[in-house]
């Protein structure tokens, strides 16, 4: 709400933004939804097809049970109800990349419905927004048309490799109130899907595709009016979603100011547009009034799927720890701030595992959190590595942090040791040795401090007069005499010695 | 007796005993086809060389003492809506005239695994839509008993080739009676098994929830042999029945004690030819004489069967046939001519001050013309009917209502089978009708399925066996129906009848 109000400040009429998202998620199966062909991306055209994918006369679909299992897993994690009986329907339309002339999908009895996903309010991260999920249903993907328009040609080539790839379509209620919320929802959804292991969510390869429905509820003197709904299709990055929605909100407001057209007016129907990333604007694709009649009916080639409550319960039990629960556990178990827990969880399960090992090995979960976020994640980013590829094990890094924790190593030196460990693959102890950093034991340090105090009576006097920081002058001298001394220890021992005088 | 007069079981015995080779058997049928098929038109394609090569291979393996399949050396004709890899599978449509599927139907795989010899592909009504095989885009099939008459349909080619001794057995498909009706009109035995008993994988779909593959044979015993070879759950067809396949040939001779036969009251009403009625009633008396009890039963919703069938079947067909759009395979209109035509229309539109873009896009025009030119009238009629029945605003009144009626019809069958073991009645209202008689009147043609569609709508098993002749010398069929998966009972009853009568042994003189 607050975001919308902030946005609407520069407009003459206050309004609420209404957004609903349809997300197509490609499920991580080895084979297609209704045949055994591979789903590998990027193979030469039409090499991953069989009579079922090409819609050859007489071929029949047979459901991939793994795809169904992954979709149940996702739906359960989205708090959906899983009906005991679900069926397949045909959605009829003509298109060259749809070889059967219909798509097998789910219409009136989807495999799940009525769930929700919680996201952090982008303006008040401590507030939670619950976004309703209308349904998630399974369907097969279509093929790909490649238009060759070079040199006046109008050839279209069809690649059916993608045909039959399992897609889970997740449809939200129109609960999102800003582009930022839409992005937050998608970010959280993607994270959830990654934790579940049901999709690789690779947007470049089309594993996650988003359509957004958006309009405005504008408050006018004559009461609240709604602008015509626009569906923005095939948004293939979160940035595109955010920008397209921001653009569309502004466009709809100004169109309303110019034309006064509103939802429900004669001749006003839902419009479809696409996001032009180069021009940073949406473009209308269809404005003609078209009531799509897909002539859905139950696919007689496929038997309905019956799912027992026991099976759903078994899936629920096996879900594992999901992001929301993980965040609150990290906060309570390691006393992390919400922000820090969020950063770690958002990196994925492997980073969380790394963190937990590091926290235990270092003996200081918060120091572990800082090091992970600042040093480890920065390094991963710089070197383009995943945590699995990171050369330092959590246990190995934990040893280093433990030395810092015990006061055997100061932070500055620890960073040097860290860099050396990374560069040479050495343990913390080996790296310290290589760098000539030795631990100075307390008796040697006491001797050193006594010598310095003897040589600096003014410092003693200052401290005795209450100026504790005077000891600072000795630290530099101590480091000159022995580079390995820990400044904190020098300070502590000097103060102790003076106190005993 | 010549080889072509023998049943499948007799031929197999001859070959096993060494008194005939597979090459001799195959040659005999190929020669019969050469002599008579110009007159009958049962086959769309016969590959003599391939059939003989395969028969020769069976003989060689037999001589080598190898274990052979249960149909070793038996020639089989296959309806041309069943896919054979690399061979034309036309569905008797211009649309698929040059189409060669990349894979074998499961039934074809099973025939090959059983060492049968594929003789050729038989004619049918286009995409199996019709009751007379006159809707074939590739030629008419004639009834071997009277070549001025139809063989029935849609498996008219399969029925005619068995009747004319051009094949000992043929494979057909039955969506509303398409095996039983031509079997009845041609005087052969035609079995429509329980829905799902034989895999549909590779059967070019007409109406998926009704389509069923089955054999056309000379005897019930041969039908039992074919069924036990072809039946079984198929991982490629999720609607195929996950039931064990009994040895139908083994149980065939066991007598059916205390058999209760139901005579369907509604099957003896208006429109039934008097000679057909007399023959069927006589057949029922044969069963009585064999100790069966005859019970009067009712299938009250049967009168809605034709309507429900044409709504469900056409709805599914409109969807199943959408793929024939010229984009991926099959017939495509001449693109240059199509472009020229469209350009001319657009030009005319501009001159007339109309929007040229309101006319088709080239893609839509390609779809339109390919379908207009590639599909026949009856197919178009059913696609339009089905498209209408499924469209928004009409679906509940037509498609959904038809599904409800379908359930009532199935309930009727369930209730009837509480009382009786089998139902007996006519296959079709009249003997074979003259070619051309009903082609101008689709509704009259639809009524030939009156007694058979119930089995498809409800999924039960049915068989047609010869039970007499009209005064004009045309065969008359008796239909027996049994509950789902009770084919053993159905085949035993049909066999019992054929042990007592000799209608099934009569052959037309060609």
From TrEMBL, chain B:
Keywords in alphabetical order: ATP-binding, Ligase, Nucleotide-binding, Protein biosynthesis, Transferase
Domain of life: Bacteria
GO-annotated molecular function: ATP binding; glutaminyl-tRNA synthase (glutamine-hydrolyzing) activity; transferase activity
Family annotation (SUPFAM superfamilies): Amidase signature (AS) enzymes
Catalytic activity: L-glutamyl-tRNA(Gln) + L-glutamine + ATP + H2O = L-glutaminyl-tRNA(Gln) + L-glutamate + ADP + phosphate + H(+)
Protein's GO biological process: translation
Subunit structure: Heterotrimer of A, B and C subunits.
HAMAP family (UniProt xref): GatA
Functional note: Allows the formation of correctly charged Gln-tRNA(Gln) through the transamidation of misacylated Glu-tRNA(Gln) in organisms which lack glutaminyl-tRNA synthetase. The reaction takes place in the presence of glutamine and ATP through an activated gamma-phospho-Glu-tRNA(Gln).
Protein name: Glutamyl-tRNA(Gln) amidotransferase subunit A
Organism: Lignipirellula cremea
């Amino acid at each position: 709400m607050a975001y919308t109000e902030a946005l609407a400040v520069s407009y003459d009429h206050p309004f609420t933004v209404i957004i609903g998202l349809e997300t197509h998620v490609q499920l991580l199966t080895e084979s297609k939804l209704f045949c055994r062909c591979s789903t590998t991306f990027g193979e030469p055209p039409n090499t991953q097809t069989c009579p079922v994918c090409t819609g050859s006369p007489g071929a029949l679909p047979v459901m991939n049970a793994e795809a169904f299992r992954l979709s149940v897993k996702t739906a359960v994690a989205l708090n959906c109800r899983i009906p005991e009986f679900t069926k397949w329907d045909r959605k009829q339309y003509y298109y060259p990349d749809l070889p059967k002339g219909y798509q097998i999908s789910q219409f009136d009895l989807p495999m799940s419905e009525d769930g929700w996903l919680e996201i952090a309010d982008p303006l008040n991260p401590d507030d939670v927004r619950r976004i309703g999920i209308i349904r998630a249903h399974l369907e097969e993907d279509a093929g790909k048309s490649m238009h060759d328009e070079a040199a006046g040609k109008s050839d279209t080539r069809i690649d059916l490799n993608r045909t039959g790839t399992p897609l889970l379509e997740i449809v939200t209620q129109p609960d999102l109130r800003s582009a930022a919320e839409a992005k937050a929802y998608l970010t959280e959804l993607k994270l959830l899907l990654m934790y579940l292991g049901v999709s690789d969510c690779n947007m470049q390869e089309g594993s996650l595709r988003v359509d957004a429905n958006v309009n405005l509820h504008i408050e006018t003197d004559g009461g609240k009016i709604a602008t015509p709904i626009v569906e923005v299709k095939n948004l293939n990055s979160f940035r595109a979603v955010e920008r397209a929605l921001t653009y569309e909100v502004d466009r709809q407001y100004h169109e309303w100011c110019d034309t006064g057209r509103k939802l429900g007016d004669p001749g006003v129907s839902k419009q479809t547009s696409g996001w032009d990333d180069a021009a940073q604007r949406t473009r209308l694709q269809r404005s003609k009034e078209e009531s799509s009649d897909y002539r859905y009916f139950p696919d007689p080639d496929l038997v309905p799927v019956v799912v027992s409550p026991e099976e759903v319960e078994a899936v629920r039990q096996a879900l594992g720890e999901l992001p929301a629960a993980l965040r609150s556990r990290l906060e309570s178990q390691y006393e992390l701030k919400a922000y820090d827990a969020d950063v770690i969880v958002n990196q994925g399960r492997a980073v969380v595992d790394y963190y937990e090992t590091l926290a235990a090995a270092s003996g200081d979960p918060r120091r572990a959190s800082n090091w992970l976020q600042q040093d480890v994640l920065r390094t991963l980013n710089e070197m383009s590595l995943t945590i699995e590829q990171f050369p330092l094990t959590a246990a190995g890094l934990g040893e280093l942090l433990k030395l810092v924790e015990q006061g055997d190593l100061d932070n500055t030196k620890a960073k040097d040791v860290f860099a050396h460990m990374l560069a040479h693959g050495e343990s913390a102890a080996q790296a310290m040795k290589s760098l000539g950093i030795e631990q100075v034991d307390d008796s040697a340090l006491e001797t050193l401090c006594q010598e310095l105090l003897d040589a600096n009576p003014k410092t003693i006097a200052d401290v005795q007069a209450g100026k504790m920081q005077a000891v600072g002058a000795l630290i530099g001298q101590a480091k000159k005499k022995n580079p390995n001394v820990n400044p904190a220890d020098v300070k502590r021992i000097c103060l102790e010695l003076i106190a005993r005088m | 007796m010549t080889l072509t007069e023998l049943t499948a079981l007799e031929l197999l015995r001859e070959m096993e005993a060494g008194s005939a080779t597979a090459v001799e058997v195959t040659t005999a049928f190929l020669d019969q086809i050469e002599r008579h098929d110009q007159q009958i038109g049962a086959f769309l394609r016969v590959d003599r060389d391939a059939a003989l090569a395969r028969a020769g291979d069976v003989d060689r393996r037999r001589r080598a003492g190898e274990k052979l399949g249960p149909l070793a050396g038996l020639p089989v004709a296959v309806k041309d809506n069943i896919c054979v890899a690399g061979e034309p599978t036309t569905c008797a449509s211009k649309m698929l005239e040059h189409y060669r599927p990349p894979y074998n139907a499961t039934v074809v795989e099973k025939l090959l695994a059983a060492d049968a010899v594929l003789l050729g592909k038989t004619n049918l009504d286009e995409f199996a839509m019709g009751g007379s095989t006159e809707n074939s885009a590739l030629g008419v099939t004639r009834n071997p008993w009277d070549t001025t008459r139809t063989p029935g349909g849609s498996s008219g080619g399969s029925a005619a080739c068995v009747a004319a001794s051009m094949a000992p057995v043929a494979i057909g498909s039955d969506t509303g009676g398409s095996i039983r009706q031509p079997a009845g009109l041609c005087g052969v035995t035609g079995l429509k098994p329980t829905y799902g008993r034989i895999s549909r994988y590779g059967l070019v779909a007409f109406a998926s929830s009704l389509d069923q593959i089955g054999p056309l044979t000379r005897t019930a015993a041969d039908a039992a042999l074919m069924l036990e070879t072809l039946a079984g759950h198929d991982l490629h067809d999720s609607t195929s029945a996950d039931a064990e396949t009994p040895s139908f040939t083994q149980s065939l001779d066991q007598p059916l004690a205390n058999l209760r036969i139901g005579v369907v009251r509604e099957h003896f009403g208006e429109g039934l030819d008097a000679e057909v009625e007399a023959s069927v009633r006589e057949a029922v008396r044969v069963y009585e004489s064999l100790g069966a009890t005859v019970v009067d039963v009712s299938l009250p919703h049967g009168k809605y069967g034709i309507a429900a069938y044409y709504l469900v079947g056409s709805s599914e067909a409109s969807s199943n046939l959408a793929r024939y759009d010229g984009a991926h395979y099959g017939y495509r209109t001449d693109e240059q001519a199509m472009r020229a035509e469209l350009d001319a229309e657009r030009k005319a539109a501009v001159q007339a001050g109309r929007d040229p873009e309101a006319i088709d896009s080239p893609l839509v025009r390609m779809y339109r013309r390919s379908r207009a030119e590639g599909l026949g009238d009856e197919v178009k009629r059913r696609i339009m009917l089905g498209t209408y029945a499924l469209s928004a605003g009409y679906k509940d009144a037509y498609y959904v209502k038809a599904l409800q009626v379908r359930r009532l019809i199935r309930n009727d069958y369930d209730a009837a089978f509480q009382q009786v073991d089998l139902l007996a009645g006519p296959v079709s209202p009249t003997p074979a009708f003259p070619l051309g008689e009903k082609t101008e009147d689709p509704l009259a043609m639809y009524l030939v399925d009156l007694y058979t569609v119930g089995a498809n709508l409800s999924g039960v098993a049915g068989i047609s066996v010869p039970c007499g002749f009209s005064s004009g010398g045309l065969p008359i069929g008796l239909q027996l129906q049994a509950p789902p998966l009770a084919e053993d009972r159905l085949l035993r009853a049909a066999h019992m009848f054929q042990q007592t009568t000799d209608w099934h042994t009569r052959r037309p003189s060609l």
